[in-house]
Amino acid sequence: MEEQCPVVIDRTGRDIHQENSRLRALGPIARVELPGGMPAWSVTGYEAVRQALADPRLSKDARRHWTAFAAGAVGPDFPLLSWALMDNLATAHGEDHARLRRLVMRGFSGGRVEAMRPSIERIVDRLLDELAGLAAGAVVDIRTSFAQPLVTEVVCELIGVPAGFRDEMLRGGEVNVTTTITPEEAAANVARWRGAMQDFVEAKRRLPGDDLTTDHFAAQEADGARLTDAEIINTLHFLRAAGTVPTMNLLGNTVFALLTRPDQRELVLTGQVTWDDVIEESLRAEAPVAHLPFRFPVDDVEICGVAMRKGEPVLINYAAAGRDPELHGQDAGRFDVTRQSKENLAFGHGIHRCVGVALARLEVRIALSSLFARFPDLRLGVPAEQVEPQESFIMNGRQAVPVLLRPSAG
């Protein structure tokens, strides 16, 4: 493939899908320039993304496999530095990753996820009760009034966070995916979270419970391998982040899609399609994680005819892959719950596939069905064009989803 002029990524994510159309025109893998002037690759084609996610030659460990970072050529002012500094299940490579994933996955068995159903239903019902208490005609942000507290409480119950720890442990979780903050602000957030998480782990060790954190203390392989305290803290950081913002985006994106497409809403509310159909189409057309850093070839690799050199940063463009016309046809950009194939990679693929897929789907299914059942007249509270995107090219969501729960009496 000929050398391309890189597409300069808009760090504010003002129009992710338009930008992805430009990238797809350059092929299944395109040259991009990241914030800070960093050259990289964006994998946009569905088949290319699937191959990249399954290829063991693409590492997520920046310390070992990002050539420029290891050589000290990435300065402290690089806006995405925090993504390179992460040290957890999401960035481990090889046997380190396999060991961590085996231990962590024990906490996401089908039985444990299903056991969360009554808790999720209870949280959803309480939040909807609070919304129902608002006056007719009131406009509320479904993101901050419903989606955010829901996902926060669910992840806290999953890992056993008592009420007194929740605000500090979860504070700023969305800030570090908002790519307009400074590296100093991101570093301060990480340091603050780490201190809160350390305090929580020490308290949980003194008072264990029926939760994922306690399971991590006991997790052990046949050869005696255990999670260290540092690995537990890093894993909890990962689960906290992965279990909140993407699920919030999935819920908010789906509500917005249905409220701006009355015909699609009618299909699910009359039972002509299922909530699973709606969720899968939302994952395909509006992947909640848009453009995820980083992977690094451990050797020179070629995927779908594109050669990438050892140590170059690679981003997986889930938002582009879901709308790939090669798989979903020329109307791939259209939200259609009746689409025969809703195939998507929004939860990943291969050894790094999201560990919480079943929990996220259960959470969103309960939330959506309950929300629309409780408020059958739900509608957008502002014109659709006034609903602004999240300030991030990494995540794909909306800053707010203002809704009118019930029309005014007049």
Please name the defining characteristics of this protein.
410 residues, single chain, alpha+beta, 6-stranded mixed β-sheet, 48% helix, 3-stranded antiparallel β-sheet
Describe this structure in words.
The protein has 410 residues and is of the alpha+beta class. It has 19 helices and eleven strands. β2 (29-34) and β3 (38-43) form a beta hairpin. The protein starts with 6 loop residues before the first strand and ends in a 6-residue tail after the last strand. Residues 172-176 have low confidence and may be disordered.
Describe the secondary-structure layout.
Elements: E1 7-8, H1 16-24, E2 29-34, E3 38-43, H2 46-54, E4 58-59, H3 62-65, H4 67-70, H5 81-85, H6 95-105, H7 110-115, H8 117-132, E5 139-141, H9 142-159, H10 163-170, H11 183-206, H12 212-218, H13 229-242, H14 245-259, H15 262-269, H16 275-285, E6 291-297, E7 301-303, E8 306-308, E9 314-317, H17 318-322, H18 325-328, H19 357-374, E10 379-380, E11 402-404
Parallel strand pairs: 1-2, 3-9
Antiparallel strand pairs: 2-3, 4-6, 5-11, 6-9, 7-8, 10-11
Helix pairs in contact: 8-9, 8-19, 9-14, 10-11, 11-13, 14-16, 14-19
